[in-house]
Amino acid sequence: MTFKPRPLPYAITGKIEAELKRLQAEGRIEPVQFSEWEAPIVPILKPDDSIRICRDYKSIVIQVSKLDSYPIPKVKDLLATLGGGGK
User: Fold this and answer.
1) What gap in Å lies between CA 19 and CA 52, rounded to an integer?
2) Which residues share a beta bridge with 44?
3) Cα 44 to Cα 58: distance, rounded to the nearest angstrom
4) Cys-Cys link to 39, which of 25, 49, 55, 64 (CB 3.0-4.6 A)?
5) In this structure, which long-range contacts are made by residues 41-44, counting pairs with CB atoms below 8 Å and at least 24 apart in sequence?
6) Backbone Cα Rg of the chain
7) Looking at residue 28, what is its pLDDT?
């Protein structure tokens, strides 16, 4: 699965690159050529004007999650079904 990168504001591009370099220098992230779980980054501007790098896994989770084909019935539907029952 390949996703388009999110558009980033030019005003914070330098801060994002600096934060990515800092995280790489600390050993928290490392560059990879390909990833099975790639997801676009979402930069969050903190109150102190620094950047937090987050990932948006929503698109991946939706594609790989197996949704229940038998959802829990609504209470209204259950009561309608049981409405004709006897003692």
Assistant:
1) 8
2) 52
3) 16
4) 55
5) 41/5, 41/6, 41/16, 42/6, 43/8, 43/12, 43/15, 43/16, 43/19
6) 23
7) 93
Q: Is the Cα torsion angle 42, 13, 7, 29 positive or negative in sign?
A: negative
Copy the structure tokens of residue 64. Answer: 């790989």
* pLDDT, mean of each 10-residue run, the chain (87 residues): 76 92 94 81 91 85 73 81 66
Q: Which residue has the tokens 């309608």?
A: 80
Q: What is the pLDDT of residue 85?
A: 58
DSSP-assigned states of every residue in 27-81: TS----S--TT---EEEEE-TTS-EEEEE--HHHHHHH----SSPPPPHHHHHHH
Task: Using the structure block, give the residue that is written with the tokens 């948006």.
Answer: 56
